[in-house]
């Protein structure tokens, strides 16, 4: 196992074939890692200092990476702006450990830029002692699954209404529009020239960043599209109104994935939204042709763009360090830089207090139904990530869990435009602290503040100050959040800037399974042999003499019967009665109405004996609730039902992830391969007596826990069993 380092001279040269072989093996020939794309990047945007790093294990090439020296000791992956993502051609992140020593000089950090979690080694984006993933952009895609009508029916009412209005405007003004699809190599040069004219006529032309057939960017795109068109992998889609080009999109494709590289439209015709109309017509065509399974946008998506999406995810930069010590030094540097930046921000805030600037304001609502329609895009964006960030989920909590509670839903606005939605619950704690907490409870697996992507911590802090003046509190608490999501640190920083003292706390572990395109059969063969044998043995027992049967309910047909069966099974299970009896039935009905429901039922001699409620939305299957009749525990119907539903979501729904949601139960490890954590933030208002009491309680508890952990570590070391698994910040917080 070794790395070979070679200088590059404007191309991959002898390594071109190996590069494409590894790209095909790892990522199905992803366009951004195609040698034609990479070599064009090197030709037009290379600095001349790039090095090709080649890793071999035996005779096999299993790692290829292009890097350049960014500054002393820091090597950065070669990723010009024209590549919105740059899949690292690595079979394993472990290969990178030896790269530090192989690079010239003393390398202490390697930066991997624009990493897409769908096209990266599985553990690359997980933070460990020697790596720091940094979210960069929120990209989006559209799965070409089912018919276009089915896809369009699931779009927000606001989007559908707006598109209908634009179509009417075009019909009234021009009669008809023409969509032209260009794929022939000889057409690409002129298509890029026309595209450049569109960009040059708009704001990009004024700022000097527009594509032009005469400049480097224009030549790059003409080169790329021409070479990809030779193999039928390039398309230019043009939208014409009265023989005048109104919008254009540049696309490249693999056998499964189409990537939208660039988009431009005639800004003088913005009232007709030609770029959006082009997108709708193109997607309708893509659904009809079914040539690819996904259309990928690779953009930093706005709420308006997310309304089109069926999926979204974060593209991240990853900083790798030679050792944990150097990673900690970098963390300290960032902390100091952040502190200095905060001081400067406060100074600027003081200077701008009486200066004209953006107007921040909020609306407070007590019911979801009162929210303006302009909030739909934010909820839709949240829904792409998880079902419990959807508007329907919060409506469900409002109706079945918190009907008599003080719900406060804050709509955050800047200059009259919606910038965020903050669903909160106002309550008193056991110590009579006035608490505002996330609108969530033990039914919620994920929560976050719903924000436009460009909201800063300064802006969010401004909203929080206004909210605290509107409803004075002693304590803020946000539960079940993803610490890797950009809004986590953004919220924490904003709370601090608003004058409260935030503390993180561990909430629960979350086991999940990235599918990576596997069929159920492939997945099943990868399970532990004991699990496979158990399933097969109990299947024989359950289905012997045709006494057992399984059923999956997905729609309204047979729904009430399924709900009745759930109640019957749950009542005979080991579980305590539901504290909110209306919640689960209404959840089932909501999921059925949205097309999300996958409710499994196991019967034995006609009697329902086990049930599981799964929620499938936007490429993700969530295992939400399960129960079985203890009298039939010997049949292991729950285990068989899990396997049956897994087969359905992998082979029929084609999900990208299966999520076991809340908790570290041992049985989840049998089915899932990865673990992540959900954390919360609790903060205290030092301007109130009760807030100071709560903060004192929090600090005392954490100090005691830290001392106890250190004592246990010393005792374990003394006994020769040194192992410190203590999480000082975990285990909840001091609940006042």
Structure in a nutshell:
This protein is of the alpha+beta class and 736 residues long. α14 packs across α15 (486-497).
Keywords:
Aminopeptidase, 4 domains, BioF2-like_GNAT_dom, 736 residues, alpha+beta, Acyl_CoA_acyltransferase, disordered C terminus, 22 helices, 13-stranded mixed sheet, BioF2-like acetyltransferase domain-containing protein
Detailed description of the structure:
There is one protein chain. By secondary structure, the protein is α+β, with helices and mostly antiparallel strands. It folds into four domains: 2-135 and 317-331, Aminopeptidase (3-Layer(aba) Sandwich); 145-292, Gcn5-related N-acetyltransferase (GNAT) (Aminopeptidase, 3-Layer(aba) Sandwich); 366-509 and 679-718, Gcn5-related N-acetyltransferase (GNAT) (Aminopeptidase, 3-Layer(aba) Sandwich), CATH 3.40.630.30; 516-655, 3-Layer(aba) Sandwich (Aminopeptidase). Helix content is 37%, strand content 28%. The chain is built from 22 helices and 26 strands. Strands 1, 2, 3, 4, 5, 6, 7, 8, 9, 10, 11, 12 and 13 form a 13-stranded mixed beta sheet that branches. Strands 14, 15, 16, 17, 18, 19, 20, 21, 22, 23, 24, 25 and 26 form a 13-stranded mixed beta sheet that branches. α6 (188-200) runs antiparallel to α8. The protein is globular, with a radius of gyration of 28 Å. It comes from Sulfurimicrobium lacus. InterPro entries: Acyl_CoA_acyltransferase, BioF2-like_GNAT_dom. This is BioF2-like acetyltransferase domain-containing protein. Residues 160-302, 530-669 form the BioF2-like acetyltransferase domain.
């Amino acid at each position: 196992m070794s790395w070979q380092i070679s200088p590059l001279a404007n191309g991959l040269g002898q390594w071109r074939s190996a590069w494409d072989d590894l790209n095909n093996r790892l990522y199905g020939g992803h366009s951004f890692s195609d040698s034609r794309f990479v070599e064009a990047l090197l030709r037009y945007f290379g600095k001349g200092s790039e090095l090709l790093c080649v890793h071999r294990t035996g005779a096999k090439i299993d790692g290829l990476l292009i890097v350049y020296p960014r500054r002393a000791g820091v090597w950065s992956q070669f990723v010009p702006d024209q590549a919105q993502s740059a899949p690292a051609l690595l079979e394993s992140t472990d290969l990178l450990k030896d790269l530090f020593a192989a690079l010239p000089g003393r390398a202490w950090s390697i930066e991997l830029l624009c990493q897409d979690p769908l096209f990266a080694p599985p553990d690359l984006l997980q933070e460990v002692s020697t790596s720091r993933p940094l979210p960069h952009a929120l990209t989006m895609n559209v799965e070409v699954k089912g018919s276009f009508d089915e896809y369009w029916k699931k779009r927000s009412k606001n989007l559908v209404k707006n598109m209908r209005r634009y179509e009417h405007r075009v019909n009234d003004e021009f009669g008809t529009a023409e969509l032209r699809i260009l794929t022939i190599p000889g057409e690409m040069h002129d298509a890029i020239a026309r595209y450049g004219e569109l960009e040059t006529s708009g704001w990009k032309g004024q700022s000097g960043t527009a594509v032009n057939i005469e400049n480097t960017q224009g030549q790059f795109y003409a080169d790329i599209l021409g070479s990809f068109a030779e193999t039928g992998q390039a398309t230019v889609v043009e939208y014409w109104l009265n023989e005048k080009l109104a919008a254009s999109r540049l696309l490249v494709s693999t056998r499964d994935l189409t990537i939208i590289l660039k988009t431009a439209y005639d800004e003088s015709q913005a009232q007709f939204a030609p770029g959006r109309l082009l997108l709708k017509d193109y997607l309708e065509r893509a659904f009809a042709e079914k040539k690819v399974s996904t259309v990928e946008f690779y953009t930093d998506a706005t709420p308006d763009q997310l309304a089109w999406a069926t999926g979204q995810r974060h593209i991240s930069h990853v900083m790798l360090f030679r050792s944990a010590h150097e990673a900690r030094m970098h963390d300290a540097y960032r902390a100091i830089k952040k502190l200095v930046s905060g001081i400067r921000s406060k100074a600027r805030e003081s200077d701008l207090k009486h200066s004209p600037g953006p107007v921040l304001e909020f609306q407070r609502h007590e019911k979801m139904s009162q929210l303006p329609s302009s909030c739909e895009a934010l909820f839709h964006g949240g829904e792409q990530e998880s079902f419990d960030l959807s508007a329907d989920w919060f409506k469900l909590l409002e109706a079945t869990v918190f009907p008599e509670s003080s719900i406060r839903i804050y709509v955050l606005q800047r200059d009259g435009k919606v910038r965020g939605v903050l669903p909160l619950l106002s309550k008193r704690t056991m110590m009579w602290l006035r608490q505002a907490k996330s609108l969530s409870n033990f039914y919620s697996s994920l929560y976050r503040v719903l924000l436009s992507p460009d909201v800063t911590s300064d802006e969010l802090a401004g909203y929080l100050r206004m909210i605290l003046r509107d409803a004075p509190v002693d304590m803020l608490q946000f539960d079940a959040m993803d610490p890797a999501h950009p809004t986590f640190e953004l919220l924490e920083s904003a709370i601090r800037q608003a004058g409260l003292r935030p503390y993180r706390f561990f909430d629960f572990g979350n086991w999940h399974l990235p599918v990576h395109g596997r069929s159920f059969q492939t997945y099943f063969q990868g399970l532990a042999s004991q699990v496979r044998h158990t399933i097969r043995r109990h299947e024989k027992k359950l289905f012997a003499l045709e006494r057992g049967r399984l059923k999956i309910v997905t729609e309204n047909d047979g729904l009430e019967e399924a709900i009745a069966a759930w109640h019957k099974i749950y009542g005979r299970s080991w579980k305590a009665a539901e504290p909110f009896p209306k919640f689960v039935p209404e959840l089932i009905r909501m999921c059925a109405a949205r097309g999300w429901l996958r409710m499994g039922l196991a019967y034995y001699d006609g009697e329902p004996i086990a049930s599981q409620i799964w929620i499938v939305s936007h490429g993700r299957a969530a295992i939400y609730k399960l129960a079985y009749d203890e009298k039939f525990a010997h049949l292991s119907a729950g285990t068989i039902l899990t396997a049956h539903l897994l087969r359905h979501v992998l082979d029929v729904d084609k999900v990208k992830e299966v999520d076991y949601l809340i908790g570290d139960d041992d049985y989840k490890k049998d089915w899932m391969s990865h673990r992540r954590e959900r954390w919360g933030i609790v903060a205290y208002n030092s301007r109130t007596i009760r807030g100071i009491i709560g903060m004192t309680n929090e600090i005392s508890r954490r100090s005691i826990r830290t001392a106890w952990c250190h004592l246990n570590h010393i005792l374990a070391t003394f006994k020769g069993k040194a192992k410190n698994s203590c999480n000082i910040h975990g285990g909840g917080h001091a609940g006042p």
